[in-house]
Amino acid sequence: MCPKLSICIPTYNRPIELIQALESVAMQGCGEWNVYVSEDRSPRKEEIAAAVNVFSRNHPEITVSYSSNEKNLGYDANLRCLLDKADGEYCLFLGDDDLLAHGSLKYVVEAVSRP
User: Residue 47's beta-bridge partner residues?
Assistant: First the structure.
């Protein structure tokens, strides 16, 4: 069964902000979602990969898929790349510098589940 939401995070050059965004996802607890992070060939790509690896080890209950583009695609193409990879029934884009309010993913899942 596919998850209700795929949380798609395009990222470029913001490892610290990405960690904060991912931690805001972790604050939501477990639910009907998974996370996709697509790094767009930034100068800090190694730091971003390391941040995602640490997050994944610290939060094994959250499914995180990470990819790094072979060349810089630009913001729009990176979003489309994430859409191609997402397997949720719905896709929720989260900027690498955005934070989720406590309980927001549960609220979104409830909203999209209504008939």
Answer: none
